[in-house]
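Help wanted!
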Amino acid sequence: MELATFIQTIANSVVAGSIYATVAVGLALAFGVMQMANHAHGEFFMLGAYVVYVFYALGGMPFPFAVLLAIPTIAVIGLLTERLIFRPTRGNVLAGFMATAGLTWILQVAAGRIWGLAFMKKIPTPYMGAATIAGAQIGLQRVIIIPAACILLGLLWFFLYRVKLGKGLRACAQDPEAAALQGISINKMTALAMGIAGAYAGVAGALMAPIHAVTPYMGRDLLITAFIVVIVGGMASIEGAVLAAFLLGFIHTFITTIFDATSGVMVGVAFMAFILIVKPTGLMGRVKA
Amino acid sequence: MSVLPFFAREYHVEILIIFLINVILATSYRLIATTGDWTLCHVVLLGVGAYASALMAKHFGWPFWMTAPLAGATAGLVGLGIVYPLLRTVGFGFFIASLAIGEFIRLIWIKFHTPFGGPRGMINIPYVGELGPIDFYEAIPYYFMTLVITLVCVIIMYRIDRSRIGDTFKSIYEDDILAASIGIRVGRYRSLAFVLGSFFAGIAGALMAHRLNAIDPHIFGLDEMVYLLVWVVAGGTATFAGPIIGVAVMSFLFEWTRPLLEWRPLFFGAILIGFLIFMPGGLESLIPKFTRLFGNRNAVPAKAEQPAGAKEPVV
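Answered by r_m:
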């Protein structure tokens, strides 16, 4: 591999890892608080991309504004999912997950009906130009994902470890009953977790919109990756999810560059099976997956 | 069921054949689910059986009565391979790890053009030939062959369910730690359930491959898996008949919504959510309610409802 290609692949790996991390932290957070995961998480990502399509490509708003708009929009969808699906099925690990598998279909059909099943939505690239490092060219549109993800993950860390509400969220993830005895409302915390999960998946989709084929089914491949990330990192561990996201980002991007995309996903799954065999709790988890 | 095909059009006989295959699939899914392990790769194991049978028939020219059991055995072996890492997980982790591993197998089919035919799959799979004067190429003979195989499979699974092994599976579902403490090897029995379920899924796959004549990786995708979940959840898993009821009712709805092709996933998604929230016991939970309403009021109360995937959350 040439040096330029090598540097370019590393940059792409970091970009992929940033996106995986932004998507997977929401999944890990929600799993920690309510022991349930959201099958429609990939569709939240997809809807985030459509928010950018509607407000930036169709509405002519500035790109950063459209991305910021994705945060409250998808957060509200996350809150609705919590209220209408996860709360009625609480205490049943798989029911919420299977019900959101139904929600996946509903959102896919709805997106297809509203915006059409066209192969790809044309979204003009807001940041043309490329950064050149040692002969490797990296599109600016990709580069901005890295600081954006760093800011988002930093904000989440600050919220979870420095803000009282976030500390309550972590307490709830550690022991829901003890947290409830301290006066923390489980309902509010699960709603908050799902809101954050939705916001993060949505903003990741919004950032990816100009460099990814925007279709109603774009969330599906990412969902499997996000699940692998969460299992490898350790089910409820947010730090583990971030670490595993970057590992997976490097694995996927390098294998895809050297061989092809199918092999990339296959090696990712094999990596997950390997981690499950040697360390069933995941890299940084305390509970068995 | 035995006179039905004579009164139906050929198209409807084809639907009945697919229905019977789905009965094997849903019943074998329940066999695994009785241990509390809900998997998301069962349709992929159906595909393993279909591909195995198709490859054996196409490349070695073996007859169907040989390839079908071997397809089951192949699916069982693949199941044994997958369940090894999966045993490290319980409940929810099992669910999503099996999704990823199933995707791995599908990607193998997509990636390797020889012998699997890549993304476009395999075509010209030999039909089941003639047996004496009966030509199984025709829909009605094939229907009866499928009916017999389905009955045999379902009866075997019923016997397993009623046997000591089946009770052991259910004890693992109730409390795996307690089961382990009385000397049940939990891991071994969970693998056994998974392998048995995979075996019957493989046989269903062989039946499917030789009827459809062509298979590709997309018909064993996640969408089909969620349809299987819809059947099993709608029927319920507490009794043996639950998944069969689910397949029957949902297949009817599936054909009935054929004019609304694009809206169908939305419709079934709503059905899945509705059942999980409002009727977690599935359609089978209605039966004791009806018998209580119309029949003997002093009847023995029915077995406790077993909602889909209910297990204490693992903290």
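OP: Thanks! One thing I noticed: Chain A touches chain B through 52 residues (CB under 8 Å).
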